[in-house]
Amino acid sequence: MNTRQVIDDSAGPVSLSASFNNDSSCFSVGLDTGFCVFNADPCELKVSRDFNAGIGLAEMLGQSNYLAIVGGGKQPKFPQNKLVIWDDVKQKAVISLEFRTSVLRVRLSKSRIVVALLNSIHVFAFSTPPQKLSVFETADNPLGLICLGKKLLAFPGRSPGQVQQVELETGNVSIIPAHTSPLRAMELSPDGEVLCTASEAGTLIRVFSTSNCAKIAELRRGVDHAMIFSLAISPSNTLLAVTSDKSTLHIFDLPHPRALSRRSQSPSSPSEEAVNKWGILGKIPLLPRVFSDVYSFASAHFEIGDDFSSGAPYIPPLGTSFGRPSKGVLGWTNDHTILVISAGREGRWEKFVLREGEDGRRYCVREGWKRYLGGG
């Protein structure tokens, strides 16, 4: 017998999606009534626009007045195959792009608009009118995975588990065979030199150098299957945060190609700390691999909310009436502060900080939380 109370649909707006801007100083929320923009830390409402219709996707361009928005919810503001670039100063659409299928994700820079559809990535010049620069075919990409850096663009390849990496200046394409199962999450470091990927298995995060596409590390989230929600790399490019449907936030030390290169060129042997960090147990013959993997140095619990069931099959968080709101979205405001935002009926913001304990170990501690749509 189901004894749960019926949720009152008139209790205020529902957030359909939530995403940080490029430096995590702000986050934008698509609502079933419009969209909002919040300052990230402290969490404070900055902009609210009521369209009396749904926005399933809202992506900011830095701290500018431009947002990429796509319709969503039970009463979409726009068709879901239409992308609108919204100028919030003029409070009107300044660019519109229509596609044959639904827009799943958008990434913006001052010079480019990158759009993910289910089986293709479309790159446009950020101009009026927008000029199409290139189109790339992909394997099924229901999550609309895209990473847009200053020099690189990364997205799923034509085969499941592959990554295509494109140099924006030259157009050169590299293929990274990252996983054997479809990709679930991708993240490019702020300096563009490291790419992290996770598959649908959700047990390992693989780390690649973008300069030569070499795998430089494997980080183990756990041994059980999990749905990875988000990956985020710290401003210094040295820490990785991971969230999953286990309601756990993990923090890893992240190797960097420059540091590894210096170590390999040094005539002295690696330090004991470095050897331990990257798996000294792996040198012991016949030891099961799980003992040699690198685990997170700190973890903490974050809230998913009642409108997510980890047992159900995944539906892309596009804000449709049947879709699932985005959860566990990560942003670093500095090298010791991580924010986790989740959409849903109880849109939630949580703040975690890294602290060193008296035992010399680092810990991840929740410092605060609130319901950004009000009520807490």
The largest pleated sheet is described as: 5 strands, mixed
- Point out poorly predicted stretches: 1-9, 268-291, 310-323
Terminal Cα span: 30 Å
Strand order of the largest sheet: 17-18-19-20-24
- Residue-averaged pLDDT, rounded? 87
Which structural class do you get from the secondary structure elements? mainly beta
Cα Rg: 21 Å
Shape: globular
**How many helical elements?**
2
Tell me the strand percentage band: 35-45%
Number of strands: 29
| Helical content band | under 10%
Topology:
Layout: E1 15-20, E2 26-31, E3 34-39, E4 44-50, E5 55-60, E6 66-71, E7 82-87, E8 92-98, E9 105-108, E10 112-116, E11 120-125, E12 131-137, E13 147-148, E14 152-156, E15 162-167, E16 173-177, E17 183-188, E18 194-199, E19 204-209, E20 215-220, E21 228-233, E22 239-244, E23 248-253, H1 257-265, H2 272-277, E24 294-295, E25 298-301, E26 329-334, E27 337-342, E28 348-356, E29 362-371
Parallel strand pairs: 20-24
Antiparallel strand pairs: 1-2, 2-3, 3-4, 5-6, 6-7, 7-8, 9-10, 10-11, 11-12, 13-14, 14-15, 15-16, 17-18, 18-19, 19-20, 21-22, 22-23, 23-25, 26-27, 27-28, 28-29
What's the short version?
The protein has 376 residues and is mostly beta strands. It has helices spanning 257-265, 272-277, and strands at residues 15-20, 26-31, 34-39, 44-50, 55-60, 66-71, 82-87, 92-98, 105-108, 112-116, 120-125, 131-137, 147-148, 152-156, 162-167, 173-177, 183-188, 194-199, 204-209, 215-220, 228-233, 239-244, 248-253, 294-295, 298-301, 329-334, 337-342, 348-356, 362-371.
